[in-house]
Design a protein that fits this description.
globular, alpha/beta, 6-stranded mixed beta sheet, ATP-binding, 4-stranded antiparallel beta sheet, binds adenosine-5'-triphosphate, Rossmann fold
Length: 254
């Protein structure tokens, strides 16, 4: 698996919100997109998932232009977890996760689809909720269901837009551990994330966006107090705890 994003631009109407964004991703890697509110993280994820079409540049997946893939192909290769999603029709947790199998089902789920969905429900410890309407879940429970639906797609790349924003400490770790487990089995993940300490712990590489441009890209070394101060406009202390970086925001820069 290889994804090459080369020099993409995107604008909503006339306003350019992504400019000249490039990066590469390989099987097994977790890439975190970081940057302040409005810097373009969700827009970039939506461009990769083809919800939005970049105005310029290319997205090459395993040597093929992503623009040439059918919706069904895309859904077999890319599993998207949106920041939030509101549905107007009732659907149970089980059925919501089964929706991830849609690209593989001709008219009704097979035994294998049922098994995959049941395994995911167990992995995410959603057994007690599996017949509950998704609308009657807490924000964090709903976020886990969206993650489960993406896993059910058995994608090559998981695209996760703030997958832990509604989760408590325990569930944040559980979901990030699951992402790591999945990537250790050969898929890749791209995650937009605000928690820089968690990002540091669980990511192999980073792109730091500032006003739609890549301000810095690379490994943990880009999480320096200089870069973070410049991009987020706050004084930041970068501490070490058991070999991991802990990012502590101290005070806004006047
Ligand atoms: N549908 C839209 N129409 C017009 N402008 C939009 C739209 N969606 C986002 N934008 C603008 O595009 C820019 C990038 O937004 P985006 O949601 O990608 O940022 P983000 O980094 O994901 O932010 P956050 O951390 O707040 O989720 C922002 O200036 C935002 O106001």
């Amino acid at each position: 698996m290889e994804l090459k994003v080369d020099s993409i631009d995107f604008s909503y109407d006339e306003t350019l919100v992504l400019e000249d964004v490039s990066f590469e991703l390989k099987a097994g890697e977790i890439l975190s997109i970081i940057g302040p509110n409005g810097s373009g993280k969700s827009t970039l994820i939506k461009c990769i998932n083809r919800i939005l079409d970049p105005k310029k540049g290319s997205l090459i997946f395993n040597g093929r232009d992503l623009l040439n893939l059918t919706r069904e192909d895309l859904a077999r290769h890319l599993g998207y977890v949106p920041q939030n999603e509101s549905r107007n029709f009732p659907v149970t947790v089980f059925d919501a996760i089964m929706m991830g199998r849609k690209p593989y089902i001709s008219w009704k789920p097979r035994e294998k689809d049922m098994e995959i969905v049941s395994e995911i429900i167990e992995k995410l410890q959603l057994e007690d909720l599996c017949l509950r309407d998704v609308k009657r879940l807490s924000g964090g429970q709903r976020q886990k269901v969206l993650f489960g639906r993406a896993l059910a797609q058995e994608p090559d790349i998981l695209l996760l837009d703030e997958p832990t924003s509604d989760l408590d400490l325990r569930h944040q770790l559980e979901v990030l551990e699951l992402i790591r487990q999945e990537t250790s089995r050969g898929i890749a993940a791209i995650t937009a994330i605000h928690d820089l300490s968690l990002a540091s712990r669980y990511s192999d590489k980073f792109i730091m966006l500032s006003e739609g441009r890549v301000y810095a890209a690379g490994g943990r070394e880009i999480l320096s107090s200089e870069n973070l101060q410049e991009v987020y406009g706050v004084e930041v202390a970068v501490l070490e705890h058991r070999g991991e970086k802990i990012i502590v925001p101290e005070s806004p820069i006047a």
